[in-house]
Amino acid sequence: MNTTVESQIRVMIADDHPTFRRGLKYIFSETPDIVVQGEAQDGRELLAAMPDNPCDVVLLDIAMPGPSGFEILKQLKEQYPNLPVLILSMYPEDRYGERFLRLGAAGYLNKESSPDQLLDGVRQVARGEKYISPTLAEKRALISAEPKKTPHELLSNREYEVMCLLASGKTVTEVARELFLSVKTVSTHRAHILQKMEMKNNAQLILYAVQRGLLE
């Protein structure tokens, strides 16, 4: 396969796990049409590196120290509206995929996806297309068929993150640690979540999340 430098897809990787970044770089090193332009270990480092590292696709993890994945994606789309951002996360597509697509992500992939799926995703979004896995496509079809918004769709992106973690059985302290927030902030989010969803406790959140398939 003849691939010139001009035709290569330049990828920027943002992930806080060095071993995972190393694995991605190895996969791309075996592929002549994709090259790693740069890497960052959190959102702030990614945004700071972007001006000096022009790229064609950003691979963005959503669970890194600092600003949330939602906030980083929002800033990327404000500064580089035409740049495709492919979300690569440990969370399943049906939990966060739809929300990130609404915010402007070009696609969403689970980190357990095969190397072939990853390469297909990068190439597809680089062509200006959306990359939607079969799992996420099914989820979107179900959402579009619903006559009105479900309770969890009334939550802000941050509230939704907190809700999913609480519903998975984590305590307020554990959620605060995972999202790099204060316990007070998480407690405030929890109160807003329960109010918006018209629930009284975490047990109801857990039951709701299980029934809706929002947990792994």
Describe the protein.
- This protein has 2 domains: 5-141, Response regulator (Rossmann fold), CATH 3.40.50.2300; 151-212, Winged helix-like DNA-binding domain superfamily/Winged helix DNA-binding domain (Arc Repressor Mutant, subunit A).
- The mean pLDDT is 87.
- Helices cover 50% and strands 12% of the residues.
- It has helices spanning 18-29, 43-49, 69-79, 93-102, 115-126, 134-145, 157-167, 172-179, 183-196, 202-212; strands at 9-14, 34-40, 57-60, 85-89, 107-110.
- It has 216 residues and is α/β, with parallel strands linked by helices.
- α8 (172-179) crosses α9.
- The protein is globular, with a radius of gyration of 18 Å.
- α4 (93-102) links the parallel β4 (85-89) and β5 (107-110).
- The protein has 10 helices and 5 strands.
- Strands 2-1-3-4-5 form a 5-stranded parallel beta sheet, sandwiched between helices.
Low-confidence stretches: none
CATH fold field value of the largest domain: Rossmann fold
**How many DSSP-defined strands?**
5
CATH level-4 homologous superfamily of the largest domain: Response regulator
Structural class based on helices, strands and sheet pairing: alpha/beta
Fraction of residues in helices?
Answer: 40-55%
Radius of gyration: 18 Å
List the domain count as a whole number: 2
Instruction: Indicate the CATH architecture of the largest domain.
Output: 3-Layer(aba) Sandwich
- Mean pLDDT over the full residue set: 87
Oligomeric status: single chain
Encode the helix/strand succession as letters: EHEHEHEHEHHHHHH
Mind summarizing the main beta sheet?
Answer: 5 strands, parallel
State the distance separating the first and last CA atoms: 40 Å
Question: What is the helix tally?
Answer: 10
Shape: globular
CATH class of the largest domain: Alpha Beta
